[in-house]
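Assess this:
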Amino acid sequence: MNLSREKKRELVDQLRSAGCCDRCTLRFLKVTIPSKYNNAKQTLNAMTSSADSTGAVPNDSGADSAAAISATPSPCPQDAALNSTGSTGLSEAERAEVASSQSSTLADSSGGMDTGLSRTGDDGDVTETGLSRTDGNGDEDDVPVEPSAKYRQTASGDRQAVGEVLAASDGSTCTSTLDPVGDAEAMADQASSGVASVTVAVTGSPTPSSSACSSAICVSCLGILEDSWIDDIVTQVHARVEADDYQFSSFSFSIFFPLASLVRERALVAAIDNEFKPSSGVPQVKEVLKWVSSPRMQKKLNVKFELNSPFQISVVVEHSESEPLISTLIEKCPERFPGLARSKVKPTAAAVNVTSLAKALQAIADSDMHSWFTCPLPTPGATASLDLVSCQHGSIYIAGRYCKYSRTLSQTPWVIDGQRKTEKSVQELICDALQEEAKARDIKFCSSGREDVDVRMLGKGRPFCVELVNPRRCVISAERIAELQLVINGSSDDVQVRDLQLIDKTGVDHMKEGEAEKIKHYRALIFVAAGVESVDLTAISDTKELVLHQKTPLRVLHRRTLMNRERTVHQMSSKAVDSQHFHLFLSTQAGTYIKEFVHGDLGRTMPNLGSLLKSSLDIVELDVMDVDLDWPPALA
């Protein structure tokens, strides 16, 4: 949509008449430069102004150059004509020079009045030439205004901004809609002479004007893009961050908007003339909010904004209109919400999410929107409210290897029917110190396989990783990690860790890769009921690459899926211990049930060691000797 300045003014007029704020108006003009939203009014003026290269505004029509004068303060001075002087784009020095040259054309009348302004005389009449004049009888005369009045200043010489109210010496007020540039003396004279409330519009092409006071809530963004709302959210975010005591060097920002804003925006689009109707490319409210609020948050939090920062600030915004608007849509077009139509209970607005609503609104015709709603929707009765501010830091990961020397220690907390079966676990002995150090909300323990409670983990240990979820302390030095390793090892003789180090998330993926292909080495103490001499131990060492078929063991069937697993025993060897015991050394594919391979599990594992030796066997002790995984890297 490539519009001329004239067409842009027409669109801006439509949007303002509908009740759009300046920033939402810029959105519909498809402005995608974030900095342009900082001073939306100035940007709108620059986009719609008809100024020539000298800054003067051509007098297209005398009818458009009338100035409105009233005896009471303007109800909405902030939203008066946007910088009609056309001086946008000039430097301060250039603006002052233009104003100075124009001020020379001003002349005081016998009543002490400035050309292009208004004044209340002793008789109560406003007799200024170049203004819309109201006399004591209430009659009004339109008099052309020259494009020379560009500013207003107080008697003390201070500049008065557009829309500010001047206090005169007699206590009356003067409301200005002019740009704060120009001749100080002429303005001071007007202010010191006792001027009533005055609203002035300068000659030139018509400019976008607001149909409502700026205090009115925007029909599209629900007031979210107003500076006061943004300042409030920045203050509350800062308070939350301070209260949660996070350690972070950057931040990202996400916001969850009320669904009412989507419906309102769709109704607004339906009301716009077809030649201006946007098909795509309109920045979302949440995008603009990020553009405007992020610099303020950076200053308040004293850290930089980064899109992919691990520290995320989330804001949830609600609005009272969301439920009735969504309920109306569900009632009018239930076919647009197929997920709700299949529900056995009556669909409610709470069941609608942003994605489904956006799809539904996109498919609804303008004519339907007009028949179901007033397009655009009326000014909302209240601004959107901040429902929740939360902070979340991305997880940090610490890896290492652990050895377990106890036969009464589970790998993770062992709880059945609310009762603990073991006092401690490997996970707790390792993770408690790490969680305390990082002040993490939660932990996740992950390892390369697991051993039973009565199985020891020897050798170099089993690789493991600890995910510290939502940590408040995220910077942990290598020296501090080494100290934590000593703390863990000093807390118990049952568990010892080595090679403790910080890793990134890709390291976790590496640990999980090839889980079924890893080779694990075991040592088992085997009991032979008929005695060791009754079996041929040489048959064990002669067996290579033995393929097993294992059904889910009976001892874990209550928590594992019933299925057949094919596993490989790569090699075995044996060594007699006494007349009824020998040690079995074997290397197997990861995931092999070693105990079931020894005794057969009532025939659920075939072949098994008992069938190979043609004898009744049982396993007394089992140790994991090594896990073939070169991760994490060994530390000196």
About this structure: Confidence is low (pLDDT under 50) at residues 51-214.
